[in-house]
Amino acid sequence: MDPLKVFATLETSLSKAALQEYLCKRGWSVDIDTQNILYTAFAVQLEHSGDELFTLRGEIPRTDDLEDLLAPLISTLYHEQCHINLDVFEEDGRLIKRVQI
User: Fold this and answer.
1) In this structure, what are the phi and psi dihedrals at residue 11, rounded to the nearest 5 degrees?
2) Which CATH number do you get for residue 37?
3) 21-8-14 Cα angle (round to 5)
């Protein structure tokens, strides 16, 4: 099965390094070679895209429990009081899930 695509924008006053450190303190890790942010089931690339804006891009495995799979990312960023828009897409571009916090 093809993985699903994840794209998110988030707004936070944290720098990229501070955001990575924050995530690492909450069970995430950063791959030094790829700069991917890793959590048990998936990896996302964090990119600075503006003053207080970041994008997250990556793939997640297809699952019946999409909510459970996304919960760690959403709850971690929610507690940091980031503004987040997260979309999950099929390989062909069809929107599967949208979360706005």
Assistant:
1) -120, 125
2) 3.30.310
3) 30
Domain count, the chain: 1
Alpha carbon 50 to chain centroid, angstroms: 17
Domain of 29, in residue numbers: 4-100
3-class secondary structure, 66: helix
Nearest to 56 by CA among 26, 33, 81, 82: 82
Strands (E), 1-101: 4-11, 29-30, 36-39, 42-50, 53-60, 83-89, 95-100
Q: pLDDT tens-digit profile of 48-66?
A: 998 899 999 999 888 888 8
Q: At a CB cut-off of 8 Å and minimum separation 6, what does 61 contact?
A: 1, 3, 4, 41, 42, 69
Euclidean distance between CA atoms 8 and 80, whole angstroms: 15
pTM across the whole model: 0.83
